[in-house]
Amino acid sequence: MATQAFEEIVEDFEFLDDWEDRYRYVIDRGRAMEALDDALKVPATKVDGCASQVWLHPRIEAGVFSFDGDSDAMIVRGLIAVLRALYNEVPVADVSRVDAGGELARLGLDEHLSAQRSNGVRAMIERIRLVASEAA
Fold first, then answer.
1. Fewer CB within 10 Å, N or C, the chain?
2. Distance CA 100, CA 86 (A)
3. Contact at 8 Å (CB) between 117 and 76?
4. What pLDDT is stored for residue 112 in this prediction?
5. At what angle do helices 74-87 and 19-32 cross, to 10 degrees?
6. What pTM was estimated for this model as a whole?
7. Which pLDDT tens digits describe the chain residue by residue (136 residues)?
8. How far is CA 2 from CA 41, 85, 96, 131, in A?
9. Which CATH number goes with the domain that contains 98?
């Protein structure tokens, strides 16, 4: 169960031959993402368990989940952008059914991220699922 936005990332990855290009692509997605307002970079939106600073600001409108995010690390901003493509505009009741690990594996991210970055991605996914389950 993936959004059309995530499927577009999967398709783009298929055209990129090596991991340096894919890494650059993820970073570019993060650069293209609008910065999170500094007023939202507070302890309540900060994600623990990440090697870098990460903030996620969830929104639930009319039963649909979305979030904005930011990080002080460019690759992590890119990973946030990938997670936004995976989770934004998903009905809040369906967020827990998204197989984030399986979907990210389609990109090969599970094989090419450091242990610290993988832990950070898991922490972001856990936060997204927690917020959605509390709202459901």
1. N
2. 8
3. yes
4. 86
5. 80
6. 0.95
7. 679 999 999 999 999 989 999 999 999 999 999 999 999 999 999 999 888 999 999 999 999 999 999 999 999 999 999 999 999 999 999 999 999 999 999 998 878 888 899 999 999 999 999 999 998 7
8. 28, 9, 12, 19
9. 3.90.1010.10
Of 26, 47, 50, 73, the catalytic one is 50
- Is 128 considered catalytic here? no
Which residue from 84, 86, 71 is spatially nearest to 120, judged by alpha carbons? 71
What three-state secondary structure class fits 118? helix
Encoded tokens for 9: 């990332």
Number of domains in the chain: 1
Domain region containing 62: 4-135
Decide: residue 19, CB within 10 A, 0-12 exposed, 13-18 middle, 19+ buried: exposed
